[in-house]
Amino acid sequence: xxxxxxxxxxxxxxxxxxxxxxxxxxxxxxxxxxxxxxxxxxxxxxxxxxxxxxxxxxxxxxxxxxxxxxxxxxxxxxxxxxxxxxxxxxxxxxxxxxxxxxxxxxxxxxxxxxxxxxxxxxxxxxxxxxxxxxxxxxxxxxxxxxxxxxxxxxxxxxxxxxxxxxxxxxxxxxxxxxxxxxxxxxxxxxxxxxxxxxxxxxxxxxxxxxxxxxxxxxxxxxxxxxxxxxxxxxxxxxxxxxxxxxxxxxxxxxxxxxxxxxxxxxxxxxxxxxxxxxxxxxxxxxxxxxxxxxxxxxxxxxxxxxxxxxxxxxxxxxxxxxxxxxxxxxxxxxxxxxxxxxxxxxxxxxxxxxxxxxxxxxxxxxxxxxxxxxxxxxxxxxxxxxxxxxxxxxxxxxxxxxxxxxxxxxxxxxxxxxxxxxxxxxxxxxxxxxxxxxxxxxxxxxxxxxxxxxxxxxxxxxxxxxxxxxxxxxxxxxxxxxxxxxxxxxxxxxxxxxxxxxxxxxxxxxxxxxxxxxxxxxxxxxxxxxxxxxxxxxxxxxxxxxxxxxxxxxxxxxxxxxxxxxxxxxxxxxxxxxxxxxx
Length: 583
Fold this sequence. Notes:
single chain; alpha/beta; ABC transporter transmembrane region fold; Rossmann fold; six-stranded mixed beta sheet; four-stranded antiparallel beta sheet; 22 helices; 10 strands
């Protein structure tokens, strides 16, 4: 049960002063809280024996007021210090988790779904934070404070009465332990169900247009109802155990009260203790209710925190497929890129998506990459970005194998526009500034002209300050593509990869963007993957991929002479274009 504290010892060691102060202040406040019951018992005895004077009553009232002020001040200090530490832990873990996410490769995100990761970054972190705050409080109260109260009851009143009243405690310890084990396993299942529901909600929101288009609203609601029912049932299983804590403790506390009152009254009749001592004892017994509750709360909190920490550690322990080299080499410039017998298959598959790719690219060249859907174009680019490990053969940048380059430096040399453009829920200006953080509006407007987006900006309500909505929902497909192009253009990278990133624009716009691209990227390397061959006719080299292999290679003119797939596809597209013009 206490394993969670051991797992978090790195944090407690770092903030040991904060926690030491909080625990000492908490113990001090608890000790001060034990004084008033003794004063009550003393006052009752004074009244009973008719020895209470006005002066002593004034002293008692002033002492009470002083204790209230001191207790309040110390309680504020331990509360602020202890729970402030819990907030710091949550912040640290959330930062570590986010840093971990940013280092991960696509394989990781294939294993862990977005909704589940969100659940771990919210509910699980909150449960761990509770452990470092409320968990420490209940630990101190259920141990040190309880010992203080029992000590006061035994040493200052009666050991016989104290031992008799505490007979139910061993029973409580056994029962609480069983409850704790059940809480741990059930809470793990509840958190997993919550993660699955999160993921389904996320997918439904992202795909709301498709859901409406196919009139699947009712089916989605039914599916969501089933998932919420599953989450509800699993949380109810946790709640059933959670609900047993309080009544169990109340029964045991009631037994303690019964024993204390009955045996205490007998001792008073026997003149072995005073009436004031009996009142004080029962006040202490009442004060013992919270530490007894704290035992249950402690087990509950620790088991939830332990389950959540296990889930977080499971995520954090995942090692990225692609690691930075121990001693990375520096690139002074990319004079050439060589693909030597590059063969690759995705994790979990036996089929090779790329087979023996041989390609030599000189600085300043434009490389067209074409082929059927699923031929391996995107896979080739992902390997250039080192998104996957397990590649056979080698990719060499200016004589340095890609595995020997720092990941950040490699990707800093490359500008990438993927097939599926990702727009952040920010303004158009902020989305473009991901490519260059300090880009001025003048630079952005110039780049938007290159991306043929100036006319669109004028029509948008707030220009560059227009919010694009979640995943760019307020923009059309073509607009998103051109904003993504602008984001890559403004970076002005040494190597630019366009992965079918002109598919949503019309042929005339595509031609203008390509023309701007040729003018802007002289002496810089560009890779263009496209289904419309008009986007690559100007390329210095064009490779045709089919089933992961290069089946044709050369310039546009050379490929037309080969009478292969490229010529056939190009002529077909030209006929379609003429047909559209005639229509």
